[in-house]
Every structure is written in structure tokens, then in C-alpha cells.
Amino acid sequence: MHTRISGFVCAALLCLFCLPASAEVAGSMVIAGHGPEQRVIESLAHAFEKANPRAYIDVVWDDNSKPLDLVKTKQAKIAVTGTAEDGFRSFQIAWDGIAIMVHRSNFTKEVTKQEVAELFSGKYKIWADLGGPDTKVLLIDRPRNENNRDAFEQQLGIAGKIPEGAKLIAKDEKVIKTIAGTLPPHSAVAFVSLGQALEAVASGVPVKLLPVDKIEPETPTVKDGRYTLRRPVLLLSHNEPDPLVEAFEQFALSEDGQKIISESYTPLPKTSSP
Q: If you average pLDDT over residues 124-144, what whole number do you get?
């Protein structure tokens, strides 16, 4: 998907009022991505342009692209990822909790991090082995280009171990619908972005999130690190100074930026540095 968000509104008026040059930045840049962050990045770009009318942000989103390659070839200035890369500036703007979701009727109460690793490695075939119903486990996997998949595998030490027979679903929305509608209803399990997962639970979708190591998956526990299944939301760019890139980074950390981010992800603690 390719989304253009225009900016230039009121530039002439601002010139007439002779605002100081430091009040805003000017120029254009491309932000590239392919993961679940599209909505929040578009919202940030739109708000950034409103605050900086002489700035133009082009958000390019393609599920099959490699955003960092676009930065390497200077077709984009920022790549949105979940993993840092040697040789590139890495700037964190949020946390994304990774929730373990099952159907609400699944009476499995909780899991340990080790059990999550073994569950998604295919060790557990029946939910009864985890204190749940006597039904088969249906694993739902995510595509490689979903940023939370790499973080999920790395944290659990299961890279390459998720069974090939697992059902592959890309979008969080479709994953949630699948878990809610799978028969028998308590068989499916998946890992999803916490923001989408909490929204589904709050709206009455028949799903639930399993505590991990006795910690509930919630915004406060992700923010302070008690819930350890989480990944950073990162902006990657070249190391050379770029005023527009730096202005966008700082806007993302501002009160307005973090408010936008909190609609989908866990904002950073105010006292921490990215």
C-alpha cells in the first residue's frame, strides 16, 4: 500500500506572520514500513505536518517490501521496524506488547514464558497438558514481515521452530476473528499486538489474553517491563544528522506524539530515554 499525506497548508500565511525559522522545519521525506504500525505512523505524520506546514511526509507501506533497504538506497529516510540494525541510527518511540490470545472458553489460566516457547514450538498437542480443555492445539503463525514475529521468536529462542503446519495469518484483525470463530472454539492460539488484543477484549469479542509468568498483559506492565513479551517500535535512519528526521523523532516523543501512539501501542515512560 502507498499512502500520501500532504502538507504545505498555510505556509504562505506563516510567512506573512514572520514566524522565526526555529518554529518549524521544512522539507520532504519518505517513511517506509511493512508491519502493523501503519495506522499510528500515518496519524503521526499527519499531526507532524499540521505542526510543521512546510514539511511533507510520504508514508510508503508495502507488506512485501524491505523498508530498511529503501533507507539504504536513500529512497526513504526512515524505516519503521522492531529490530535495530548495525550501522543505522535506531530511535525508539514506543513498546508493543505481544499478547498470547485464545478463545474465551479456553479455561487455561496462565502460562510461563517457557511454556509459550514450547507451545509455539509444537511440543504441546493437547490443551489439557497446560491445564486446559481436552482439545487439540491449533497454532496460528504470522508472516516473516510482521515485526512482532521476529521479536517473538528471538525472545523465546524459537527461531525456525514454529511448525510449518501452523496456520499462517497476516493481520491482527483476521487473527482475532479466526480465534473467535474457530471450532472447537477453545483450540486456537496466536500471538498478537497488545493494543489490538485489548481492544478486542474490551469490545466483547469472545477472546482472552493469557498471563505470562503470572503477569497480566496490560499497558502498565508492558511499560515498566514486568510483562516481558514486548518489542520496541523503532525508527531506523542513517547516522548522518538530518533536521527533518530528528524533528519527527522528537515529535513522536512529545506529549502530542505519545498520545497518538498510545491509541495503538504502549508509550514510553516519561523518565526514560529511547
A: 94
